[in-house]
């Protein structure tokens, strides 16, 4: 009886050691293969997400020992990139760097997105949060949110158009919330990403836009655009004078959107762990953290489990908001 239990214990230990060895071998083999890691980005070059991906990829290649190549698959609010991730082999060589829209929002507002975030992808790690903000163009005299509303009412007969980076996105829902709350006729104008939206705002082709802090912060600093409201429970560190939508009387806008990395379902856990460890080391680098913070991100590494929980909670929160709005899937 004693020998039987001892034998079972030894067999269990050998099994555990074999599994650990296999896991280590998988990670080592990936590193030694030299196969580049494709980091898909669902938005065009020059946009905020692209700049973030390129900053991280440059450091990740040193940590991982293989090239990390940013591949822009722009269009449809990240839908094209997500479809490409689903179609990619689950071998650890293709990942998606995305914010909340593609993963949490898009599947709720598009009837046939071509992927299911919950079953086709696995979270790898989270690395930042950010705020969506309302900004007015240089051709608009308003310097505050209240001045913008007054300008719309008195100079535009209560009508205006606010640009958003993608259709059926959180910025578009914010436009509807502003229009409904103040009983104005404000419509959203969807763009293919924040880069063309910003270009039209700089050219005074559109009076206002809603996108992320990283999309607008440099032009705000230069005085070419003016950020007048942000989402979140508290004011942004880079924008201490700008009120939150919560301060302005809007409800349920405290949760900040996320940035993170996703892999196709079935990707080896060793590959996921290896990438997550590398990302954590990169985020700890002062120069990386400073650059991301300067872009308007709140940097903070989240492990696979932590990030999966955050994505799930955030998705459920916006599901309630979208359903309450009466929005019908496109």
UniProtKB/TrEMBL annotation:
PROSITE patterns: TAT
Domain of life: Bacteria
Signal peptide: 1-31
Keyword flag ATP-binding: no
Keyword Transmembrane: no
Matching SUPFAM superfamilies: Periplasmic binding protein-like II
Family matches, as InterPro entries: BUG, Bug_dom1, TAT_signal
Coiled-coil ranges (or none): none
UniProt keywords, alphabetically: Signal
Pfam families, sorted: TctC
Family per similarity comment: Belongs to the UPF0065 (bug) family.
Protein name: Bug family tripartite tricarboxylate transporter substrate binding protein
């Amino acid at each position: 009886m004693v020998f039987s239990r001892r034998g079972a214990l030894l067999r269990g230990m050998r099994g555990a050691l074999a599994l650990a060895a296999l896991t280590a071998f998988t990670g080592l083999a990936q590193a030694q293969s030299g196969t580049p890691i494709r980091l898909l980005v669902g938005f065009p070059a020059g946009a905020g997400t692209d700049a973030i991906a390129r900053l991280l990829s440059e450091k990740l290649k040193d940590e991982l020992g293989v090239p990390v190549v940013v591949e822009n698959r722009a269009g449809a609010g990240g839908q094209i990139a997500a479809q490409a991730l689903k179609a990619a082999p689950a071998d650890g060589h293709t990942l998606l760097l995305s914010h909340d829209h593609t993963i949490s929002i898009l599947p709720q507002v598009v009837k046939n997105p071509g992927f299911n975030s919950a079953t086709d992808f696995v979270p790898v790690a989270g690395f930042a949060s950010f705020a969506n903000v309302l900004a007015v163009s240089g051709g608009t005299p308003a310097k505050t949110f209240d001045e913008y509303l007054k300008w719309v009412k008195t100079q535009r007969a209560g009508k205006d158009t606010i640009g958003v980076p993608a259709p059926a996105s959180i910025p578009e829902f914010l436009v509807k919330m502003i229009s409904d709350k103040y009983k104005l006729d404000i419509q959203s104008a969807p763009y293919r990403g924040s880069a063309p939206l910003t270009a039209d705002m700089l050219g005074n082709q559109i009076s206002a836009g809603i996108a992320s802090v990283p999309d607008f912060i440099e032009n705000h600093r230069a005085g070419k655009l003016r950020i007048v409201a942000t989402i979140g429970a508290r004011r942004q560190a880079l924008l201490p004078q700008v009120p939150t939508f919560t301060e302005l009387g809007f409800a349920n806008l405290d949760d900040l959107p996320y940035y993170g990395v996703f892999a196709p379902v079935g990707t080896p856990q060793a590959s996921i762990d290896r990438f997550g460890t590398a990302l954590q080391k990169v985020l700890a680098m002062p120069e990386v953290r400073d650059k991301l913070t300067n872009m308007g991100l709140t940097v903070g590494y989240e492990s696979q489990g932590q990030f999966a929980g955050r994505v799930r909670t955030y998705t459920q929160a916006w599901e309630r908001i979208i359903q309450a709005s009466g929005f019908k899937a496109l």
